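Minimal example, chain plus flavin-adenine dinucleotide.
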Amino acid sequence: MNTYDINTTILSNEEVAEDHYLLRCECYEIAKRAQPGQFAHVLITNGAGLLLRRPFTIYTVDDSHITMLYQIIGEGTQRLSEMPIGASVQVLGPLGNTFDIDCNPNPAILVGGGAGIASLMLLAASLRTQGTETLGLVGAQHRKRLLSVDDLETIGVTVHIATDDGSIGQHGFVTDLLTDLLSNNDLNRPIVYACGPHGMLTAVSKITSEFEVPTQVAMENRMGCAMGVCLGCVCPVRIGDNRIEYQRVCTEGPVFNATEIAWEI
Ligand SMILES: Cc1cc2nc3c(=O)[nH]c(=O)nc-3n(C[C@H](O)[C@H](O)[C@H](O)COP(=O)(O)OP(=O)(O)OC[C@H]3O[C@@H](n4cnc5c(N)ncnc54)[C@H](O)[C@@H]3O)c2cc1C
């Protein structure tokens, strides 16, 4: 897979929910090749001192543009959110492996916690394009932080919402929605795709292993080079006879089968 390092300008960078922004820029080569789950490594040129790029999943693509939906977490994303239209950014991508959708999910269940839903949007679009029934379970802390519901519904995803404080949707965690759905037992051959905080993914993995539902997770470990060199993003993966091997989220991931990850480490 070819990767491109593109110097481009910001076409829009809007706050779409509390502390969450949608960045759009022209990246023809990346837009043409990006697959569900893949990410871009963005050099934030707003001020000095940010040597490391920051990784963001590619949220949507069209002929020549990509968008990335990001949450303000620390200095890098704060500075990115302050960059105006016309400012230049350096975007490296597409990077990483992809979600597998050739396994004919029926239905596909997307579980997104907070900004984790951003990593599932391109996947949702591909699933809907191939005619797969797709359910989106979207979790947020509260109503003002709810993301992507309109975008998902526009492409035909059936969305269920949970918020920690009950300000919209079901009161509780998005994993409660997942348990309720899988308990219903009238699903044909469900496959779960999930992204979100580590604790949420651990819970998703536990639930889906109890229900024996295949599950792919996109991991969002802290990342350095994104080229497989620095080993900053490794996560523990079970191989063969229950031995643990550390694999790189940037090159072997970010998508893993949930059963492979050693969640307890
Ligand atoms: C493959 C991949 C795809 C990603 N896609 C998205 C996306 O689409 N949208 C989005 O909002 N975020 C995404 N992230 C997370 C995003 O990269 C980080 O939130 C961002 O790099 C934080 O940068 P910062 O400079 O603002 O924070 P920093 O100043 O670097 O960190 C501030 C605080 O946040 C913690 N932190 C930093 N990075 C992470 C992380 N990855 N996970 C958990 N805690 C972290 C640090 O420990 C620190 O406490 C992705 C991460 C990966 C690895």
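The chain has three domains: 4-95, 99-220, 221-265. Residues 39, 54-57, 68-71, 73-77, 115, 118-119, 220-223, 249, 254 surround flavin-adenine dinucleotide (CB under 6 Å).
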